[in-house]
Amino acid sequence: MVEVFKTNVLKQSQANLITASIERTFPDHRATFDLEDCDKVLRIKCDGAICAERILSLVRNLGYEAEVLPDELSYFPSMIMPGAYSHSL
C-alpha cells in the first residue's frame, strides 16, 4: 500500500527527522519526501495497511502540517468506470 501526503516541510533536515520518526514508530513503513514537488510530498509505502491518522498525528506532533492527497484516479471516475458520467443526448 502507498499513501501520499501534502506537507509544509521545506528543508531536507526536516524531512530526515520526519522519515526517521515514522520508520522508528512504524518499522514496516518506508517514508520518502519529494521536496521538489509543489506539495512537498511525503510518500509512505508498506506491505500492509497504513493508518493515515496515525501518520498525520506523528507529523503534527513534530510541529509540521500534513494532509492526505487524494488518489489521482478519484479525480477521473469515468476512467475507472467507462460511461459512469456519460449523458444521453
Describe the 3D structure.
The structure is a single chain. The protein has 3 helices and 4 strands, in the order E-H-E-E-H-E-H. With 89 residues, the chain is α+β, with helices and mostly antiparallel strands. Strands 2-3-1-4 form a 4-stranded antiparallel beta sheet, covered by helices on one side. Helices cover 31% and strands 21% of the residues. The longest helix is centred in the N-terminal third of the chain and has 14 residues, at 12-25. The chain has helices at 12-25, 52-61, 77-80; strands at residues 2-7, 30-34, 41-45, 66-68. The termini are far apart. The radius of gyration is 16 Å and the shape is globular. The relative contact order is 0.23.
Give the arrangement of secondary structure elements.
Blueprint lengths: L1 E6 L4 H14 L4 E5 L6 E5 L6 H10 L4 E3 L8 H4 L9
Antiparallel strand pairs: 1-3, 1-4, 2-3
Brief account:
By secondary structure, the chain is α+β, with helices and mostly antiparallel strands.
Name the descriptors:
89 residues, alpha+beta, 31% helix
| Shape summary | globular
Q: Helical content, roughly?
A: 25-40%
Terminal CA distance: 41 Å
Order of helices and strands: EHEEHEH
- Overall radius of gyration: 16 Å
